[in-house]
Amino acid sequence: MTTQIRDEGLYDYALREPRLPEPENRDNDRLDIPIDTRLEMYETQQLLRQFEKRAYDLFMQNLVKGTSHLSLGQEAIATGFARAQRDGDYTFATYRGHAHTLARGADPGAVLAELLGRENGILKGKGGSMHLTSVEHGMMGSYAIIGAQLTIANGAAWSAQMRGSGQVAVCFFGDGTTNIGAFHEALNMAAIWRLPVVFVCENNLWMEYTPIDLITAVPNPAADRAAAYGLESIIVDGNDADAVYETAARVIDRARRGDGPSLVEAHTYREQGHSRADPAKYRPPSEVEAWKARDPIPMYHERLLRLGVPEGDLSAIQQDVARRVDEATEFAKSGAHPGEEHLMTDVWADGGSAWRN
What is the CATH number of domain 35-145+163-328? Predict the structure, then answer.
């Protein structure tokens, strides 16, 4: 690794040695995954990609309220895990949670309306991009506090364990979270109590604006620490939906059997900056281009063609998703802005604030 220092004392990350993706593993073409399942995952990835692009367009029109963090380039992780989960399983995500919410089956129109701060949003316009929640779909929240969702996922998993419900909690977090105390506390407790929870590190190499490897003592910030809690070291290609799905099915089944938690590190790359205001000029251009060549959706498209799916079928899926996103946009725009009468509703456990008085 070569790190350059500018005269003013700041790291010039754009001049550092790029971290390049592994070459495509074509052996995954032969994974025992039904073609119908693969087509569903292709459709989900298309939905996540087209939705995020539309969300960005609406932000540029000043229609999206507050900040937003997109998952462009990371769609395969949300897709593979959601496909492996059952109805009733729990999902916990970071503030980069659009993809996970949609992958669990939430209505795109209601999610987009939430981003626009409208009454027809899934939280009536009061949660916004960073706090997406849809309990009916098992999406138990997007969390703005780094690492907070790991301990809450443990609580959900403990509840499932105590009730004997067979539910599994899947908790997503970024690579930077691995240096937060809650990460270690949550893994330790989950391991001791053998909780039915799966922790998934979406390692996109950049901890907001800082390379994760510059401030972490081990090369793989999640997987290399698994042994400290008696867990298997699991690394998966986070840009390959098939590889993610196979891994997800294995660790979720393990948790459901009562064999305890797992920690998965999924290697991926966000195609844009950390948030809407970040042009990401700090990343080495060669790194960005190399990871764009490993974009999960074109790669999956080519795999399906190799497996004999006609191009026309894939085009039809893409066009149908485009139609759904257009309809979602019109639905979102049609919603009213929340009025003052909603200020003190859905705030406390009973839905209002009268009990405080």
Answer: 3.40.50.970
